[in-house]
Design brief:
Helix 2 (86-93) crosses helix 5, helix 2 (86-93) packs parallel to helix 6 and helix 3 packs antiparallel against helix 4. This protein has helices at 5-8, 86-93, 130-140, 143-152, 156-169, 192-203, 206-213, 234-237, 287-300, 352-361; strands spanning 42-44, 58-63, 68-73, 102-104, 127-129, 216-222, 225-230, 248-256, 260-269, 272-279, 310-311. Strands 1, 2, 3, 8, 9, 10 and 11 form a seven-stranded antiparallel sheet that branches. Helix content is 24%, strand content 16%. The N and C termini lie far apart (39 Å). It is of the alpha+beta class. The protein contains ten helices and eleven strands.
């Protein structure tokens, strides 16, 4: 079992709920990761070769090992993350539960999962290991598996608070957590920058890395029966018309009718690992994967000699330096303040100073939104995650 010491300082936040943070004037001169990441337009020192027809509302390419951001577009823009937020859930909880631990699911455990959620297919009366539940999270993006793991961790409110505390420690200040699973809720937001931080942090953990790289597994169906689950990351599994990407090692995809497609992927070639996050491309079942692959190609090609335009900061608990003021540049995410059809319009950033003081005081307050089938304010159409049979390989993307 991997060490948990790097997360242990966050545990004191677990007993209190989380409140929506107001804008923090103290951080208005600070950009997490560098001033260029708050600018509009494509940021790249070597733009030659960058894909010309990207439709994503935000994207980012970074070197996993050095943390250098090689190129980005609206890196701090706050958008609905869908199930890519499950990376933060795993970052916060993987070290807390033994893989061999067992849990028998009850009807009550599954009663509060939002309608339309993606499911791995947990059944009341069936006993699952923690390892199997994590397979349900990483491979099938099962909100039922997330919910049960959160209950095993002491409850949904406790788990949400721990996720938000960890986000603050990672300096992921564009992120506001409302639920553990990334389902559409009012105010549940993140950014390409923050999601890349979550992926980088997770990939340093052997269990996280193994789970997100798993292509398929046999899952309990009750009794001695099992059914096959496959990873919904099409660049990893090579399904539904997508060619598996050479060197792909994960990480997590997501889809809701409000967020559209979201994806953070990692691939390794010639000893170098790149991270790419793509959020909200235009319609097309495979567009998010096509644009991710194109950005990876650039990163392994022309981008290999690019000077960084920013950096992925280190966690505060692991010696990461707090972001320093940089002229009149806006704080993390202010360029991305939602307007128009963005979810959570009017929600302010959790500024750096405010985040640190909340972390130190353990004063997070969790507020459960009314359910209403997970529909955020201003959502376009009904917010529902695509649901398929437990044996299907495509819960987290629209059916082709």
């Amino acid at each position: 079992m991997h060490a948990f010491s790097r997360r242990s300082l966050l545990s004191f936040t677990a007993l209190t709920p989380l409140a929506v943070a107001a804008p923090a004037a103290a951080a208005t001169d600070t950009v997490i990761g560098g001033a260029r990441l708050a600018r509009d337009g494509v940021q790249a020192a070597v733009p030659a070769g960058l894909p010309q027809k990207l439709t994503a509302r935000a994207w980012l390419v970074a070197d996993h090992d050095t943390g250098e951001v090689l190129a980005a577009y609206r890196a701090h823009r706050r958008l609905a993350p869908a199930s890519t937020l499950k990376m933060l859930f795993a970052d916060a909880l993987l070290g807390r539960l033994e893989r061999t631990g067992r849990y028998t699911v009850t009807d009550a455990d599954l009663a509060d999962i939002p309608s339309g959620s993606s499911l791995v297919g947990l059944k009341p009366g069936v006993t699952y290991t923690v390892e199997q539940l994590w397979q349900g999270v990483f491979l099938r993006s099962g909100n039922d598996a997330v919910h049960v793991l959160a209950l095993m961790n002491g409850g949904v409110a406790k788990s949400v608070a721990e996720m938000q505390a960890l986000a603050a420690d990672l300096q992921a200040l564009d992120t506001h957590v409302v639920s553990c699973d990334g389902y559409d809720h009012t105010g549940q937001l993140s950014s390409a920058y923050d999601l890349t931080l979550f992926a980088r942090h997770g990939l340093r953990d052997a269990d996280f890395r193994a789970y997100c790289a798993t292509r398929a597994a046999d899952f309990p169906a009750g009794g001695r029966k099992t059914f096959r689950i496959e990873n919904t990351d099409r660049l990893l599994s090579g399904t539904y018309g997508v060619t598996a990407y050479k060197g792909m090692i994960g990480v997590k995809n997501g889809y809701t009718t409000h967020a559209g497609n979201t994806f953070t992927g990692a691939a390794t070639r010639d000893g170098r690992t790149l991270l790419v996050t793509v959020l909200h491309p235009k319609s097309g079942n495979n567009t998010v994967y096509e644009e991710t692959a194109a950005l990876l190609d650039w990163g392994f090609g022309a981008g290999s000699s690019a000077k960084p335009v920013g950096t992925l900061v280190e966690p505060l608990s692991e010696g990461g330096a707090t972001a320093s003021p940089s002229g009149k540049a806006p704080h993390a995410g202010s360029q991305a303040t939602p307007t128009g059809d963005d979810p959570g319009a009017g929600w302010g950033a959790l500024g750096l100073a405010g985040a640190l003081s909340l972390l130190a005081a353990g004063a997070y307050t969790w507020r459960r939104n009314r359910r209403d089938d997970g529909q955020p304010e201003g959502a376009r159409g009904t917010a529902r995650e695509t649901t398929t049979a437990p044996h299907s390989a495509d819960t987290e993307s629209p059916t082709p």
